[in-house]
Write a structure and sequence with these properties.
It comes from Bacillus cereus. This protein has helices at about 1-10, 30-50, 55-75, 90-115; strands at about 15, 80-85. It is mainly α. The protein has a two-stranded antiparallel ribbon with strand order 1-2. It starts with a helix and ends with a helix.
Length: about 120
């Protein structure tokens, strides 16, 4: 849900667009990514993060941010993204780091809440 809202916000601000996307007449964002790819990656992230120490988890989150920034540029070269001149791929680096840190905090909070 967070990813969908962020995509909708940045598309509305014309920071980027998705020229190739499912149901393009209905959605301005790539709904396939936000409904399938991001939840699958988030699930994988949680499963891996559960096995890591705090330091390893931080390094893992940094690695995800770096990979997201790189993959975004690759997707752009394939025509899946169009970014405005104001866009900086560092936004994705830090954006994904913040996103997955938040996901981990929420997951950790929910797990600890169940123990009561």
């Amino acid at each position: 849900m967070i990813g969908t809202c962020l995509d909708a916000f940045f598309v509305a601000k014309q920071m980027y667009s998705f020229p190739v996307r499912p149901f393009s007449s209905i959605f301005s964002i790539n709904i396939g990514f936000t409904l399938f790819v991001l939840p699958i990656l988030t699930t994988i992230f949680i499963q891996i993060s559960k096995t890591l120490s705090a330091v390893s988890r931080i390094l893992f989150i940094i690695s995800i941010g770096i990979c997201a920034s790189i993959f975004e540029q690759v997707a752009e070269s394939f025509g899946l993204f169009i970014h405005s001149l104001d866009w900086n791929h560092t936004y994705s680096l830090f954006g994904y780091m913040i996103f997955f840190s938040f996901i981990w905090k929420v997951y950790h909070f929910m797990i600890n809440k169940k123990e009561y």
